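To whoever picks this up:

The parser on our side crashed when reading a file containing two proteins. I've narrowed it down to the boundary between the first structure block and the second sequence. Both blocks are reproduced below exactly, byte for byte. First block:
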Amino acid sequence: MVVTYYNALSRHDAAAADALLDPGLRVAGGSEAANIARLSGLRELRVAPASYFSGLPGGYSDITQVFVTYDVVYKQVIASANGANSRFLYLGRNSAGQWRILSIGTGP
């Protein structure tokens, strides 16, 4: 799922990327894909079970943390610099059994 998300971002397919996010994580007025010029080199994909913590959306089970690193060039540098970037993503399974990305950040 994380690979699918970053592949969608690399193709500038905001709809496909957003479909993998919890609805509360979707950005009103645009996706992260809109500011990416190029994304490649997905690596260091590490998966580990995680506990639910305050701030994650409710109603999910099987909370999982994924660490990933990738290379990115932004159209406009805002919060992250061009080059290698690492992210921690928290995933969960909803009541319909679908996995969703619940949180994306630079730290666990």
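<<boundary where parser fails>>
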Amino acid sequence: MANNTTKSLINKTKKYLKEKNLSFINVNDSHNLMVLKASGEYHYLVIQFFEMPEKWMYQRRHFNIKTAYAIDYQQLTNAINRYLDA
């Protein structure tokens, strides 16, 4: 389960995505997020705060999904911007 620091990072990331007018959804019941915008060779961007369910990844094996691992807020915003610029 998410601790307060992780919850804060998740909320800040959601706010950032909303400010950029990017649609996103939660991955299943996890706190991981999937940005619903294709960029470059990728169909989606998954922002991974916690380990992704293998079954979920397997079901989407036909899509090219970029993963950004949540380390800190600055790193995440840089990863999102690099994804959008690709």
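After patching the parser it read the second block fine. The chain has one domain: 4-85. The first helix runs from residue 4 to 19.
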